[in-house]
Amino acid sequence: MVIKDITKDYGHKKGAFNININIKKGQIYGIIGPNGAGKTTLIRMIMGFIKPDSGEVMIDGVNTWDNSKIIMDKVGYVSGEIAIYEKMTGRGYFKFVEQTKNFINKDFFDNLVKFFEVDLDVKIKKLSKGNKQKIAIIAALIHDPEYIILDEPTSGLDPLMQLRFNELLLNLNKKMNKTILICSHIFQEVAAVCNRVCFLKDGMIKEEFDVDKNDLLKIENKFKEIFEFDSNSIFKT
Predict the structure, then answer these.
(1) What are φ and ψ of residue 2, in 5° steps?
(2) Quick count: other Cβ atoms within 10 Å of Cβ 80?
(3) Exposed e or buried b per residue across 85-106, where buried means at least 16 C-beta atoms within 10 angstroms of its C-beta
(4) What confidence tens digit (pLDDT) does each residue in 44-72 have?
(5) Pairing between β-strand 28-32 and β-strand 179-184 as defined by DSSP bridges
(6) Residues 47-70, buried b or exposed e (16+ Cβ, 10 A)?
(7) Dihedral through CA 160, CA 176, CA 72, CA 201, nearest 10?
(8) CATH number of the domain to which 124 belongs
(9) CB 202 within 8 A of CB 38
(10) Closest Cα to residue 151, out of 40, 67, 70?
(11) Are 73 and 231 in contact (CB under 8 A)?
(12) Distance (Å, rounded) from C-alpha 74 to C-alpha 140?
């Protein structure tokens, strides 16, 4: 996945500016930044949902804006804002999603349902936020995609399920060679699974580096440095 010189300028310093990222096959890459840093704009350009003002995104040599159908077959995407048909049951929703895909890995799907312990016969609108998030994740992975793009993926998941989800991502990466991109404002979430990260601030990449063995302290210190975080500042007069 190659993100080359992409910019989307909404004015007033909002958007994403001159982004360059090269994500290797089989890598778990993390984008860290606070709310308003430009993460969602960047993800939407990567997915081909919005057109960059300049630059391009290529996945397996395919331009994501010009070839959205091909990209959707290759990529499993979880949005930061859940948008699913809540009047359906989980089972009904997954049947609907299946119709939009060229291929469904039934065994993989069944294993995901068991893993997330989802009741497929309950109306989605009656589910908790965490269980709705599980439905969204399963729907994104139902076609066994080569690439997985996650925008704030653990939002709504309880701490135990967050840990299990991290283990799932690591297994998908190690055992099935999935390439995974995680976008989050929670650096602990990224540190748990990623082997390379970048920091996004004001729509621009401020720093990019490799992560070794859950190097949480390194990421935390970089986070504080880049975003000028000082918890004592509120007490200063």
Answers:
(1) -120, 120
(2) 16
(3) eeebbbeebbeebeeeeeeeee
(4) 999 999 999 999 999 999 999 999 888 88
(5) parallel
(6) bbbeebeebbbebeeeebbeeeee
(7) 60
(8) 3.40.50.300
(9) yes
(10) 40
(11) no
(12) 11
Residue holding tokens 């401020």? 206
Q: Domain count of the chain? A: 1
Per-residue pLDDT tens digits for 81-134:
777 888 899 999 999 998 888 778 889 999 999 999 989 999 999 999 889 999
Record the tokens describing residue 160, joined without a space: 């135990």
Could you tell me if 59 and 147 are in contact, meaning their C-beta atoms sit under 8 angstroms apart?
yes
Under 8 Å between Cβ of 70 and 61? no
Q: Six-digit token pair at 178?
A: 């999935």
List the domain range (segments joined by +) for residue 127: 2-235
Amino acid at 163: L
